[in-house]
Design brief:
Layout lengths: L13 H31 L5
Length: 49
Amino acid sequence: MGHMVDRKHRDFSEEDIARLTTELSGMFAKSHELEEEIKKNLVGIGFKI
């Protein structure tokens, strides 16, 4: 996926922050998609959500 950030290095540029927040936003969107898919699959096998 994205770039790894050295946790010891705390001086992030604006470009780094922009890239990381964009990447995080994409991860949140994918997480939501997967959550919905999981819920549909659970309903499909008889679980009520």
